[in-house]
Amino acid sequence: NQSTVATAPPAPPTTLKEVGGLSDVLQELRELVEIPLKRPKLLQSLGLEPARGVLLVGPPGTGKTLTARSLAEDLGVNYIAIVGPEIIGKYYGEAEARLRSLFEKAKRSAPCIIFIDEIDSLAPDRSNVEGEVEKRVVAQLLSLMDGFAALNGVIVLAATNRPEHLDPALRRPGRFDREVQFRVPDRNGRLEILRILTRSMPLDASVQLTNIADLAVGMVGADLKALCQKAAYLALRRQVPNLQTSVSSNLTINQTDFQQALKEIKPSVLRSVEVES
Ligand code: ATP
User: Fewest CB atoms within 10 A around its CB: which of 18, 113, 147, 273?
Assistant: First the structure.
């Protein structure tokens, strides 16, 4: 029941058990999303205004997309993913119609989560935008957010790492008036993520995830995933130096593979500011 407006094949289902180091975020999101979608009467009886839109704010690779997908899966609700730059790029000129039809589809498939990735590219601050089409897309999104009554079983989650670039009208009450922060994980968060990512990897007894978590300072979930994959490739190269040879079924990944991988994979926050020497 998950559909994505993207050229890539749909990602496999995932649950919140795959999300590490974000327990506060998950608690907050569950309250914001689960109650209105699954138990709307509870909110009504307390006279509470349910969220229609929630902004997921945080650096790339901290698990915003993973969390949105997993939340939909765990709650058993439908999921429609919209990638901001693709709507603008691929459907330029038709972007407004495309958005309208996706919101319509969400209403028909309620209860449903709409996930808008990179919303800053879809709804940039209009005072900094030249193009008429771009301005109209922002206006369309605002009117779509206003157009569905709260409690009709649709919630929009939207991710950004540049909240200051968003059109301010987007954050008015009844639109994206709730915000959840995805932070770069601390040491315990990194450890939790590493445990999840290595669950199905054949780790040798030498591997100390606590030590790797200590050393992986500044890494976000996506970096840790790259680190684990690198360690696995190094283990492969070490044990199967020649790919023509028959592969043993007892391949393992050891601590040295991880230590070597740590030398090669750098935190993405650092990569983006690296200068050539
Ligand atoms: P972007 O802003 O670049 O879209 P994002 O915050 O949406 O990034 P994801 O796309 O969810 O990040 O993360 C990429 C991958 O990194 C995930 O599919 C997952 O494998 C891993 N990952 C990221 N964060 C976490 C986390 N908190 N727990 C477990 N895995 C994570």
Answer: 273
